[in-house]
Design brief:
By secondary structure, the protein is α/β, with parallel strands linked by helices. The chain has helices at 16-31, 51-61, 71-78, 95-100, 120-129, 149-162, 178-188, 219-222, 226-244, 253-266, 272-277, 402-405, 413-423, 432-451, 467-474, and strands spanning 6-11, 40-45, 81-85, 108-113, 137-141, 168-170, 202-210, 279-285, 287-289, 292-294, 312-317, 329-334, 341-348, 367-373, 377-385, 393-401, 457-460. Bound molecules: NADPH dihydro-nicotinamide-adenine-dinucleotide phosphate (NDP) and the ligand O=C1O[C@H](COP(=O)(O)O)[C@@H](O)[C@H](O)[C@H]1O. Residues 9-182 form the Glucose-6-phosphate dehydrogenase NAD-binding domain.
Length: 488
């Protein structure tokens, strides 16, 4: 579907996210001829750069992040960029933006708020005050969308005074990843799995997002956030929703979002006992990642010496529905881990009876591994006969490597999500009530950590996190999938 002509306004257009992700994503779409010839990108910041100075900064800070550079295409792309300097909190400085925008109701207008979240409400107010919150406008909100339930509600309420829900695009870039949509295809484009997708056949689900990187230059933000707010409240819970939701009636935004909301509202709430038993938080200490020495979290630039911020979290969650009662969902995420890995592992129940002359524990239960990163693919583990004489069964793999199977070029998450915003397609964006339900579930954990004296458990960088994380899943007789690899 061809895009309508648009003005895309990037508040925070001079910031890290715009330079590393958003402008490169728009360039990639331009190279693929997805952007209308006259579409423009208006980058907003406070700094008083001239147009040339700003383009110089784009050349220096954004161009190195392109997947591939075609000089002619790049030269054409940067002609779309207009830089506007204003103070987002002061409506009296918005005149240059009013001037830069085309006053044409047939165009699509998008305000992408890639700024600190405390500016969201003020920017929306100021857009309204300056007559810029027009009916043809959409607003995109970057994470973090609040730091607890109250602040998330406040953002929803304030932004909701200016824009209707159908104009609000709350980004969770994990929903833009190819494999996440493939999970929808797997579950609802095949007859095979849905009858088995329930507690009678599935024993447990693991969802891991492990990173090798540390906090980088985002300490100011990260130390006030931590892994629970930064990754679990949003990305991990969204993945859990896609795995666990009931079949939506269609791919329409509210059909999918209603189904995800139902999952979030069915998550079993933690009690004082389960808070202590089912959650592990850790913080990395000095170690080696890929052979290179890395410092402790507390020794990273700008880190508070006594920081109690968690860089790792593992949780055993449960969903109180007929479909999922009694099936544990183990979620974990961490920085400075052994590997960069994002995957979902669905383990099925063991066979009820062995007809083979082989010990029962030599039968691995079937499992389905949905890999998001580093390589995208699906793997089904099955028991198969080993070739030759006799009847010996061994685990074998059916593998679907998306890159091999489909030669079509890949699209980064931000490319897909930006296209969806420009098309007005809301399916891959969180609705306000989903956001609040997710905060509502994690809030007791935040409160518990705030009020207890304990510190996050230290783990050595380059491992799979604290040993307590293995114990959490080990209590149920299970292992994280990479347990064979080094641990603290
Ligand atoms: N960087 C990342 O990888 C990710 C970032 N995010 C989120 O995106 C948002 C932006 O992050 P990031 O790009 O890293 O932040 P940066 O600090 O790099 O950039 C912030 C941007 O906001 C602008 N800005 C700040 N205050 C004002 C103001 N009063 N008026 C106008 N512009 C203002 C800055 O312009 P100037 O410098 O000229 O003041 C700058 O362009 C944050 O909410 C962050 O959490 C989310 C996911 C990943
Ligand atoms: O939202 C965030 O995500 C990144 C990880 O994203 P990925 O696509 O590279 O897996 C994480 O590093 C960052 O802390 C967090 O804010």
């Amino acid at each position: 579907m061809a895009l309508n002509d648009f003005d895309l306004v990037l508040f925070g257009g001079s910031g890290d996210l715009a330079m590393r992700k958003l402008l490169p994503a728009m360039y990639s779409r331009d190279v693929c001829n997805d952007l209308p010839p006259t579409a423009r990108i208006i980058c907003v910041g406070r700094h008083e750069w001239s147009q040339d100075e700003f383009l110089h900064s784009v050349e220096k800070n954004s161009k190195p992040h392109l997947k591939a550079v075609d000089q002619a295409a790049w030269a054409k792309f940067i002609q779309r960029i207009v830089y506007v300097s204003l103070n987002a909190t002061d409506a009296s400085t918005y005149a240059p933006l009013v001037e830069a925008l085309r006053d044409d109701a047939s165009l699509t207008r998008v305000y992408y708020l890639a700024t600190p979240p405390h500016l969201f409400a003020k920017i929306c107010d100021n857009l309204a005050a300056t007559g810029l919150a027009t009916a043809n406008s959409r607003v995109v909100l970057e994470k973090p969308l609040g730091r607890d339930l109250a602040s998330a509600k406040q953002i929803n309420a304030e932004v909701g005074k200016v824009f209707s829900e159908s104009q609000i695009f709350r980004i969770d870039h994990y929903l833009g990843k190819e494999t996440v949509q493939n999970l929808l295809a797997l579950r609802f484009g095949n007859i095979l799995f849905e009858p088995l997708w329930r507690r009678e056949w599935i024993s447990d689900v693991q969802i891991t997002i492990a990173e090798k990187i540390g906090v980088g230059n985002r300490m100011g933000y990260y130390d006030t956030s931590g892994a629970l707010r930064d990754m679990l409240q949003n990305h991990l819970l969204q993945l859990l929703c896609i795995v666990a939701m009931e079949p939506p009636t269609s791919i329409a935004p509210d059909a999918v979002r209603d189904a995800k909301l139902q999952v979030l509202r069915s998550l079993k709430r933690f009690t004082p006992t389960t808070l202590a038993q089912n959650i592990v938080r850790g913080q990395y200490r000095a170690g080696h990642v890929d052979g290179a020495a890395v410092p402790s979290y507390r020794d990273e630039p700008d880190a508070p010496a006594q920081s109690r911020t968690e860089t790792f979290v593992a949780i055993k969650a449960e969903i109180d529905t007929w479909r999922w009662a009694g099936v544990p969902f183990y979620l974990r995420t961490g920085k400075r881990m052994h590997d960069r890995l994002a995957e979902i592992v669905v383990r099925f129940k063991p066979i009820p009876h062995s007809i083979f002359n082989q010990p029962n524990n030599s039968f691995q239960p079937n499992s389905l591994v949905i890999r998001l990163q580093p390589d995208e693919g699906l793997r089904m583990n099955l028991m198969a006969k080993t070739p030759g004489d006799g009847m010996r069964l061994k685990q074998a793999e059916l593998e679907l490597d998306f890159k091999e199977q489909f030669k079509a070029p890949r699209m980064e998450a931000y490319e897909r999500l930006l296209l969806d915003v420009l098309r007005g397609q809301l399916t891959l964006f969180m609705r306000g009530d989903e956001l609040e339900a997710a905060w509502d579930w994690v809030e007791p954990i935040l409160n518990h950590w705030e009020h207890e004296d304990s510190m996050p458990i230290p783990y050595t960088s380059g491992t799979w996190g604290p040993a307590a994380s293995s114990a959490l899943i080990g209590r149920d007789g299970l292992q994280w999938r990479e347990e064979a690899l080094p641990e603290d």
